[in-house]
Design goal:
With about 100 residues, the chain is α/β, with parallel strands linked by helices. About 25% of the residues lie in helices and about 40% in strands.
């Protein structure tokens, strides 16, 4: 019985450790990689909300970095200064800024 409990405890620790993955990029690293032309779809980004525009032409818009606009049709329920992690679904460049569709992690 002690052996089974020990194995279960080890499995629990491993599962908890695996669930707290670090994001692939910070906001600054992500913007630099985009400027270098890298394809970053599917990557995760730690985003600091510089400004939240809930009624932008693109939907709910989280502005971050120099030219980053994380856009979604769903309200991400964030405020200026919040830090969130997102998974990038699609990136478009429009007039010198990036429109990034994402899923909140």
């Amino acid at each position: 019985m002690k052996k089974v409990l020990g194995i279960l405890l080890v499995l629990l620790i491993v599962m908890v450790g695996c669930s707290s993955e670090e994001p692939d990029y910070t906001t600054e690293e992500f913007e630099a990689a985009l400027n270098e032309g890298e394809n970053l779809e599917g990557k995760t980004v730690s985003v600091k909300v510089d400004e939240f525009v809930p009624d932008s032409a693109f939907g709910y818009n989280i502005q971050a970095g120099e030219h980053l606009n994380f856009v979604s049709s769903k309200n991400p329920d964030v405020e200026e200064g919040d830090n969130i992690v997102v998974k990038v679904e699609e990136v478009d460049s429009v007039m010198g800024s990036y429109l990034i569709e994402y899923k909140k992690q």
